Structures are given as C-alpha cells and as structure tokens.
Amino acid sequence: MSAEATNPVSAAEATGPDAPSRRRARPRIDLRRLGRAALLGPAARGDRLPDAIGHVAEAHRAHHPDADLAVLRRAYVLAESSHRGQFRKSGEPYITHPLAVTLILAELGAETTTLTAALLHDTVEDTEVTLDQVREQFGDEVAYLVDGVTKVEKIDYGAAAEPETFRKMLVATGNDVRVMSIKLADRLHNMRTLGVMRPEKQVRIAKVTRDVLIPLAERLGVQALKTELEDLVFAILHPEEYERTRALIADNTGAGDALAAIAESVSTVLRDADIAAEVLVRPRHFVSVHRVRLKRGDLRGSDFGRLLVLVAEDADCYAVLGELHTCFTPVISEFKDFIAAPKFNLYQSLHTAVAAPDGAVAEVLIRTHQMHKVAEAGVVALGNPYTPPAGGDGAEPADDGERADPTRPGWLSRLLDWQQATPDPDTFWTSLRADLAEDQEITVFRADGGMLGLPAGASCVDAAYAQHGAAAHSCLGARVNGRLATLSTVLNDGDTVQLLLAQDSTSGPSPGWLEHARTPAARIAITAWLQAHPEAAGAPEADPRPPVSVTADRRSGARLRADLPGAQATAVRPAGCCTPVPPDEITGFQVRGGSVTVHRTGCASVDTMRGLGRAPVTVHWGDTAECRVTLVAEAFGRPRLLADLTEAIAAADVAVVSATVEPPNEQRVRHTYTLQLPDAAGLPSLMRAMRDVAGVYDVSRAQHPATPGV
C-alpha cells in the first residue's frame, strides 16, 4: 500500500502556512516498539514526557506550539499503569492502541483535551479506572469525551449492545463532536490491525465501518481518516478487486512522472503570474483509483493522482484558476466551485481539470492552506468549540441547557431528533444506516425566513416533518417557490417551501406518504401514526368514490336580453362553461331550438363558435342585480372541508343551487358550486371568503368547455 494510503496525513497533505518543513518527512511511528519500551524501559523522571509519547508531543506541538504537555504526561501515566498486563490479540501491549489513536489525532491537529481523552478512552471500559476518577483528575470535558466513546455493557443489552453503543455515542457527539473524532481514530487503528481477527469477524467489523463510520467521517469532513478506512474496508470486503487495483498501481510506479511534469508546468505558469503557490502531486488512494478505472476504463499516468495547489488567500484560488484556464486547455465539465458553495461537511476547494499538450488530463484541486487543513481533518481542525472568545467569560449555554456547539451540523441535529422516536434498537440501526447512506445534502428556505437542511432527493413530506415534527401529520400540501405543489414534490437546493397545515388536528398521513419520505424522521413519524390508527392504514388510499351532488333552490339567474332581428321572443340563458354575471362583458350565440347562450367575452367557447361560422348576437344585462354563477374551489382534502365551504357560502347570504365534489387526486380535491347571488357585486368578497377556508388554495370562475350547438 502506498504511503498516502496508510498514513492518515501524507507528507504532501500535512503542510500549512505555519508548519515547519521538518514535519513533512516524519516517518511512520513504530507503536509496537514504543509500547514495549514504555513497559520495559526506565520510567520518566521529573517533568519529562515518557519516550513513548514523545512523538505525540512532537506532532501536537507542530500544530499547537504553546500547548501544555503536562496533562498529556499525567494521562499517559494513568493509561499505561491501568492497562499494564493487558495485551491485544496481536500480542502487542495494550497501551500501543491508545497511543496510536492519540498520535492519529495529534497528526490531524487535535487540541490537548481531545488527545488527553484519546489516551484514556479505553480505561473506563477495560480497566478498574472509574469515570469519577477521570473527572476528578482531568475535569468534566475529558470525562465527557471518555464516557462518550465507552461502550455499553453487553451483559445489559445483549445483541442490542452495538446499536445502543452507537446511539449513546451519537447523542454524546451531538453535544461535542470531539467524541466522534476519537471514535473514528479508534476504528482506524483497529482496522489497521484487523488481520489477527477471524475472517468472519473481519467482515462484520468492515461492514459496520463501511455503513456507519466511513459516512460519519465524510460528514464530519475528516477525509484523512475516511480515505484510509475506505482502503482497509476495500481490502477485506472486495479482496479480488483490491488485489487488481494494487497490481495496477504497482505496474504503474512511473505514473507520477506524468503528473510531475504537468505540476512543473503549472508552477512555472503561476510563478510567471507572480502568484505564490505550492504545487504538489497528490496520489490517489486505492478506492479512488478503483473508481476512476470503473469510470474511464484504461488509465493513463495522470489518472493515478491529482495536483494540489495551495495558496494563502481565497482570492488567490480564483487567480490560480484564471491562469490555469488561460494557459492550459480546461475541461469545463470538471469545474466545481466548493468555495462559493461549500459542501455540508465544511469542505472548500476549487476543482478543475486541464489538458497537457500531449493530451494527458490532470485534475487540479485549488485551496488555501487553511482550507486544506479543514479538508483533511474536518471538525478536528476546528479545535475546541468551547474555547471562550477573547475577552469573553465563556461559551454561552444553549437554550436547552446543553453547551452550544458551533460545529454541530444540520444532519446531526436531524439524526438526534429522529433517534429519540426509535426506542427499538433494530429500527434505530436500520434507520441510521439508511440515513448515513444519503451522502448529499440540500438547503431549502422556509416561508418565515428560516432554513432546513435535508438530504438530496427529499420531498415536501420530509420538509414538513423536519419543520413541524408531529404537527406535520395534518399537512395538506405545500407551495414551492410560490407555486402550489403536492407533498410528493422533490425539493431542490435553494427552493423556498411553505407547508400548508390543516386546522383540523384529527387528520393524519396516508400510507402513500411513506413512498415519498426520504428521511428517517418522516418515515418513523408516519409509521408510528399509522400503527396508532390502523383504521387509516388499512383503508385503500385510492378507493373509488362517485361524485357527490347536492341540489338546492333553483331560482332564476340574472335577467339577460338579446337583440334579435324582428324582435322575436326567445330564451336567453348564461353559458355553463363560463357562467357570466353582471357586469361581465358578454357575447351571445343562437343555438339549436332558437335560444341564445351568453358567454363572457374572453371565454374560449366564443372563438369556437366563431370558428363554426356562428354569428354573434348582441346581448346585455337587464335591470336586476341577481345572478347565478359557477365557482370551482381547489383544495387539499381534509375532513369537514365541504361543510366549511358551505358555511362560508351561506354566511355570504348566497344560495347553493348545486355542488359537486370530485374524487381526490394526490391529496387534492375539486369542489364545483353553482350559486345564486342576490347581488353580483358580492362575488369578489364571496370568492375571498371561500379562499380563506383552511386547505383551499384557489377559487375561480368555471371554465368548462361548452358543447357547440347545444
């Protein structure tokens, strides 16, 4: 395996603006030798650090020159003495494991509190040391971190121990993301030494790592850990593909020369443009090579790595991009700007690809030193989120009494919300894996100005439960970007969504909602409601129902008069397709039987009649204000909707001549009312009153096509 694939931070990737050059060449630490030396060698004297953690101290001081190392010494002494006599399955002294975990985190730039907890992370679980002792000697924060990564007792939970351990760990991570940082480093070292386990146990641990730990590393932005975990899992779960990829890399040992030549050209271009930049060749790890091979087939030398350009300021990133696209042939389809629009895991960088004169294409990553640090170490690089600001008295507590964590991402908040509703460990475990499988996130805006973070592919159903919780059971629909949308509508990044809730709290979701729910929070809430209301869950959603008709008083409509040749007497009636009322502009046409049908001037039937050669008849309103009109109300289905609409109509002193309710379609219903108004002037206020009924999103005049000649 290449150095990059095995070392959490390669020489090229560990550099920062203030990192000494000597740190690039630090060799891999032999923790087995150090562990034995810690047990058999002379004890440290005075305030000197034991030799076994001298390398940890060196790595830590490279990131934190002023760090107080005394607490690390005390933590190591406690860890070494408490684990003394314990050995790993590989035969190594157990102290090598917490040392390795601590060194991984030190290389990533973790602060002192995290390293202290990493040294002690197994003491409460595997030794006689108690959590109270850790708290007494090292404080509440270290005790919290140690407790967060401590497994629950298998004797208490049985088969549910693993899911419940992860639940406990995630809840602790919600209050302090450093808990998960320690767990990821812990799993990485365990995966490195997994070869001593039985094959079936290797596979089981690798699958959990693939399904849970790697997605968590990705979401927390800890790419240095994620990439090595991917390679280790790849070797266990797909040994044949792994060997094929390893052989491919071994057969192309000179592949870096192609990238090195392009890197030299890029350096020359940037130097001539007076842009201070560091250009590095960044080899791909095994899984990355495998993915590129599946995507492109035969690989060229430049496909085995990428160029990394590090600069000082954000503006320099775009200056580099401009020079590359000017002096080389850019592959426009490969350009992505994650600086203007960072990924949800804190990642920022410009991605592009350029073609060399010989046709070789090199992918290029452009970022600042700080961006690179965050890209590799994610939340670990952010340090202690609870360090009080300069001149402040400390971090302000959150409204719920927990510490406010500025690094807590939206996906973690959602996960913590839905896990509370899943006491069953199997449901939690299944939902957790499904949630973590969603590796993209979108942001949608609420109508009140707030924001919702949702997984890509989420629908209005997911948005409803993310915003309203259990109250979303009564959701009737939504407006997306101002337009009416069904609950099944898939949301896009940047959409504005307004959820429409029924005033009747007795309504609930239908089984069909589960087909559109992407988030565990929505699925768990819907399933729980359906289980509590089996009568709703068992009813067929698309049960065919005939239209409901209600007939009432049939008083005459507004008086209409037609000017016909010879003053012949004939019946004049309003058309049912557009139901004209005073003072609408109207046009009449004589139809079969000699009667005249009157349309609104803008009605589509007017053009149809003219196209059939029918001559228009001059018509006008009589002296009465009474009229008959047909209105169509579009609404989301809910109980008592018909009653509420009828009540609103009656309150306006309007008589219902007839009403038709069509069967629901995707939660929508259409009510058509023929109404007798005492005064046409009251029509606008009547339509407003009907629109104000909960669940109604539109009321319009009927526009049904008329049958010509009838």
Keywords:
single chain, 710 residues, alpha+beta, six-stranded mixed beta sheet, five-stranded mixed beta sheet, disordered N terminus, disordered C terminus
Topology:
Blueprint: H1 3-6, H2 31-40, H3 54-63, H4 70-83, H5 96-108, H6 112-119, H7 123-126, H8 131-138, H9 140-149, H10 154-157, H11 161-175, H12 178-192, H13 199-219, H14 223-237, H15 239-250, H16 255-272, E1 278-283, H17 286-296, E2 305-311, H18 314-327, E3 329-330, E4 336-337, E5 350-355, E6 361-368, H19 369-377, H20 410-419, H21 425-437, E7 441-446, E8 451-455, H22 460-468, E9 475-480, E10 483-485, E11 496-501, H23 520-532, H24 534-538, E12 548-551, E13 560-563, E14 572-574, E15 586-590, E16 596-600, H25 604-611, E17 616-621, E18 627-636, H26 641-651, E19 655-661, E20 668-677, H27 683-691, E21 696-701
Parallel strand pairs: 2-6, 7-11, 14-16
Antiparallel strand pairs: 1-2, 3-5, 4-5, 5-6, 7-8, 9-10, 9-11, 12-19, 13-17, 15-16, 15-17, 18-20, 18-21, 19-20
Helix pairs in contact: 2-5, 3-5, 4-6, 5-6, 5-12, 6-9, 8-9, 9-11, 9-12, 11-20, 12-13, 12-14, 13-14, 13-21, 14-15, 15-17, 20-23
